[in-house]
Amino acid sequence: MNKRGQTTRKLIKEKSYQLFAEKGFKEVTMKDICMAAGLSRGGLYCHYNGTRQIFKEIIDDLMNMQDEEFASKMELQQSAIQILDDVLSRYETEMKDSSASLSVAIFEYFSLDDNFSDENAIAAQYQLSVQMWHRFIQYGIDRGEFQPVDIQAVIDLIIFSYQGVRLYSELMPIGPELPARITRQIRQILVKTETEVS
């Protein structure tokens, strides 16, 4: 695909993301995306055959971006604590901003019969997150920066608290103190204190 085509696909995904966050998955149409992206129907269908394809690519991009973020920083031997602080800071910001949350759209997308039956795609996404976090937490333990925790239990705490807050923030007001408490507790569980390090 040429550079112009890549730029157009990026624009489509950016505008679609905003629509999915605002309206959920089921309410967004290809016509909505055409209008938001300033494209004709032919121009849009030249790149995507429907909202499902666009949404799946957005989710895949988000997963790949986070995986690459962990992998590239670990490859550079960056401090596990600094990597964790960066990720938790981003998570906290995202949990506070319900207007940018795809949680409802994700729930709607994966609730569709043909998506759910496709070897349970949401379980596959969850497993990708588990693998990514497992590699990272083990990296922190191996470096002596993290506690020797029950890795799976901590991963479940991270994933389900993050997604739970993002979903609930669509249904009720969530104050900034709640995401801060969650990220503070996750950090406290993982990071060794100065006395434990020495």
UniProtKB/TrEMBL annotation:
Q: Which domain of life is it from?
A: Bacteria
DNA-binding region, residue range(s): 29-48
Q: What is this protein called?
A: TetR/AcrR family transcriptional regulator
Q: Does the keyword Transcription apply?
A: yes
**Annotated ranges, domain HTH tetR-type:** 6-66
Keywords assigned by UniProt, alphabetized: DNA-binding, Transcription, Transcription regulation
- The UniProt record lists the keyword DNA-binding: yes
